[in-house]
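Annotators were shown the component list below and the corresponding predicted structure, then asked to write short factual statements about the assembly.
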Amino acid sequence: MTNSMALSWLLLIPLVLSLVAFASRWFRSATRFAAEAAHLLSVTLVLAFSLWAVREVLLLGSIFELSNWLHLDSLGAVFLLIIGVVGFLVGIYSIGYTRHDLETGEFDNVRLSTYYGLFNLFLFTMILVITSNNIIMMWAAVEATTLGSAFLVGIYRHPSSLEAAWKYIIICTVGVAFGLYGTVLVYSDAFNVMQIPGNAILWTEIIKNTQALDPTLIKMAFVFVLVGFGTKAGLFPMHAWLPDAHSEAPSPVSAMLSAVLLNCALFVIFRFATISNLVLGVSFAQTLFLIFGTISVAAAAFFMYVQRDIKRLLAYSSMENIGLILLAFGIGGPAGIFAGLLQAVNHSLVKSLMFCTSGNILIKYRSRNLDQVKGMLQVIPFSSVLMMIGALALVGVPPFNIFLSKFFIITTGLGAGYLWLMILCLLCLTVVFAAFFRVIVAALFGAKPDETVKGEANWLTLAPGAVLILLILMLGLYIPSPLMNLLNGASGMMLTGALSHSLALITMKNILSPLARLIP
Amino acid sequence: MSSVTLVNSLTGLLILTSLLVIEIKRPRWSALMYSLQSIVLVSIFAILAYVTGTNQLYLWAASAFLTKVVLVPWILYTALKRVGDPEKPRNVMGTTFSFLLAAVAVTVSFIVVNQIALKAAEPFKPALAISMAHFFFGELCILTQRNLFKQILGFCLMENGSHLTLALLAFNAPELVEIGIATDAVFGVIIMVVLGQQIYKNLGTLDTADLTTLKG
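Structure shown to annotators:
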């Protein structure tokens, strides 16, 4: 335990700077400058403090703040790292993207300040989800992510984006309300055992007392939690809002929704899965994960195959990847959880790259439909390369990062005896591959429409993509040891409830050894 | 009548007011019915505070009075005045069928609540079952009503259900928790109302059946 202030700063910075961004509308001619400056400062400091907090977790095992209401352990650190890195890169991309919207008149200064205010508020709510040790506050934070991002989805006020925002807020609020039921049941049960309200509400205290919790109640609570927060994570069949919201939002927001928000919802499910694992044994949560994971992957593959809208394709791909992460957790064991978390990290990087690139397509073609988007290589060559690499990475081609995690999921599944499930999974991944191949070929090649002018929008819409590609390539070849330790610590924690990170269990050698056997 | 019986009976009134919120024709009247329901909820909180000797629950009652009896209905009522309070479009299903579903929700909730073995909740099991059923009523309202504002009221009903469950099971939780949840609920309504008004302004409709651009 430590008296670090990293988590408090992490929450305070985006909250205060979001208010500054909101207020910038009254700065008249300086509105754009003030809003962008507040935003840039916020995403940069969030990255810096995330790295600081992650470092402390690596050194100390876990950190607590504000009378233990805030907490970060290895599992939280993995997700905080995603928020920090993706938040920063997509934040930079946002500046380039919204400047273009200002030029075309899609945004005025007031809407720009609203955008940056909401973006950073959204960032704050997601950090609160990850760092909250108080389980009911964690629920409130998840609900707040919906409220913070609904206006972002509908910010263009087009009929379709308003419709998407409405569906998003209604479906997610209803879903997350189920999560509240699960949360309250866990709290009441913990209070019954512990008799101290201030402790029964803290996740770290609940997992110390799991032996006395009521199994029937925890079973019921976990089902509520999985359905509730699963809605927010976009699991099939509660996914209806996801393709609409992710495709209608401005592209940087789509990136944040897909690459960060879905993970936050999964994180909450994993927190409760740890309780369920300790009370009921691992098989209860694992079975549910296998069922929801498999049907989500299969359904997403089907939807992807019939898509002609690039952003909807990417949205369904997020559903497929979330399903895959859950499937890995369903396979279970240290290796399954490790593989699932690695997939979460990898997917978030690739998906933010893809959504940012789809934003560049929208800027140029003013359309996401494949009937209109053609000849990208001639029109926006740099974005085309970003998209090509992103798509290859997304379908799991080596040497990019997702290959490694998908490969590890499949080999772990085979090792655990899930032969038929893995065959089904590979079939679905083949369909996904075909869907992407079709889209990429159609968009990159062919004759460009006459009215489309060649040239990229501005360098700010490209630079974050280039950095993401470096990260994607690096994680495909080598996983740095701090990340390795976090992933191992997180999987150990989920299985045993031990807060300090365990010794490294899985190594790069474990991941690649089946491959070594395949290559003579 | 003992206070415990009084609490359990008052929750019966919640069912009645919920059905009124769902089935009344004009959304503006539904907003008033919601306010009426919140008065019942506030009374339940106050009685619970008295029975359990939990001072915190008096605070819950006071904040629920401000937000649910006054603020939220007022926001909805004035917003509906602004959009002209169009009579609700035809429902997805008939009233009789809605009532049948409501009965099913109550039955299921009683069965589920019977499985719960919590000492603190033992005397209030009927109330707990109704709070859970309430939550399903809200969902029923969202699923069966095509008017955007009626869907917001559905959210409010769900929220009342959750609030009562919290009061019965987690009344001793730290104060900040209740404040967090109440803030979420009020902001939820405000954001939905603003979004509903934007939809009305840009699309000229409050009927969800007209929101059909996004498919596939």
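Statements collected:
1. Chain B has a mean pLDDT of 84.
2. Helices of chain B lie at 3-23, 27-52, 55-82, 95-115, 125-144, 148-169, 175-203.
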